[in-house]
Design goal:
alpha+beta
């Protein structure tokens, strides 16, 4: 090999060494290297910047690493270094005070250095500060503990609220429904047995009492149904929507003597949902569509689904009275009505029940309409 080649190799080695030195000196990790005799052969600038208060002097190449160790840890330190020289790595984390007096956590790892033949030629100590990491961990733990405490508190509050709701539900279903049934029954007795003893005004007054007793009973039942939805477990299965909606239509035809609406049922895709609850959704929506289109010369209702960005959206459309879309925000609230009860009777709870069921399925429901030009209700089931 000529001198020019030797010079090129030496130049390459110098550049490589300079590059490695630059990388090591600009690293946030402390590096100390020593040979199999435990003599220091290299270290980066960070080593002498960090060196802990127990180490009284700065590092120097050629000196024995064991001489830098304080007497109280010299014995165990010697054992650790010997193990590393024999190929047994060591890793630990502890708290130290640096020379500027700052206390911090540090992770130290000791590994054997091997040549290209796998022979151990030295040991590398790598040390990095983990104070900020530990602080972040402590902060995360503190936050998690606080969240867990709040969750437990909120769980207790919810349990208390549920018990109160159950007590209220029991009270409503027994204490309130009983007098309503009595009012309804005795009103009917008066209408049947004392009709000839009542004048027209008395007869009409009794009818008003009876109608309102019945309406109050319906309202209580709807409120109970709404309250119970929160405690009902969802039992999901794959439901054939065509069969489900067909059964709802048949039941409404059977219960409604004069179902004049023409219902067009398009092919519906199946869905994973609670069969009983979604049947209630279709029943409420279809009942509404029938009710609000009953005054049309030819009431028309269409039921179907569309694909929107890969998601199935079910809909029910009528040609009824519609509503002002500026009031759409009130649709799904309890007792929120967009039409007079005298024109379209009802409790004002049906759509709130629908909304609660769809929400429990983690779906969405919304409506579009135009006053006197019908309405369309949409919902999704993920």
């Amino acid at each position: 090999m000529d001198s020019k080649s030797d010079n090129n190799i030496e130049e390459l080695l110098r550049k490589t060494e300079a590059s490695l030195r630059f990388i090591l000196d600009n690293s946030e990790t402390v590096y100390i290297l020593f040979d199999t005799q435990m003599r220091i052969v290299a270290f980066n600038q960070k080593a002498n910047q960090w060196i802990v208060s127990e180490f009284k002097r700065k590092l120097r190449n050629g000196e024995f690493a064991i001489d830098y160790l304080p007497e109280k840890i010299k014995r165990i330190g010697l054992s650790i270094i010997e193990n590393a020289i024999n190929g047994i790595p060591f890793s630990f984390e502890d708290k130290y005070a640096s020379r500027d007096g700052r206390l911090g956590w540090y992770h130290i790892r000791m590994d054997a250095i091997k040549d290209d033949k796998g022979v151990i030629v030295g040991v590398c100590i790598a040390l990095r500060e983990t104070t900020s990491y530990r602080s972040a961990q402590a902060e995360i733990k503190s936050t998690n503990d606080l969240l867990e405490k709040k969750v437990k508190e909120r769980t207790i509050e919810l349990e208390i609220a549920n018990k109160e709701l159950e007590a209220f539900t029991y009270s409503v279903s027994h204490d309130l429904m009983a007098p309503l049934r009595i009012i309804d029954s005795f009103s009917q007795v008066l209408l049947d047995d004392y009709r000839n003893k009542l004048d027209e005004e008395g007869f009409e007054t009794l009818q008003v009492i009876k109608r309102n007793a019945i309406r109050m009973g319906e309202l209580v039942n709807d409120l109970l149904a709404l309250a119970q939805l929160g405690r009902t477990n969802l039992i999901k299965r794959n439901v054939d929507m065509n069969d489900l909606v067909s059964s709802v239509i048949d039941e409404l035809r059977f219960s409604t003597n004069k179902l004049a609406a023409k219902i067009k049922l398009k092919e519906l895709k199946p869905a994973d949902c609670d069969h009983i609850l979604i049947k209630q959704v279709w029943a409420n929506l279809l009942s509404n569509a029938i009710k609000y289109s009953k005054n049309r010369e030819t009431p028309m209702i269409e039921i179907g689904n569309v694909d929107q960005n890969g998601q199935i959206v079910y809909y029910i459309k009528d040609n009824g009275v519609g509503f002002d879309t500026r009031l759409a925000g009130k649709l799904f609230g309890v007792f929120q009505r967009l039409h007079k009860a005298t024109d379209f009777p009802g409790t004002g709870v049906g759509l709130a029940i629908v909304h609660r069921i769809i929400t429990r399925h983690q779906g969405k429901i919304w409506a579009d309409a135009k006053l006197d030009h019908g309405a369309t209700f949409y919902f999704t089931l993920p």
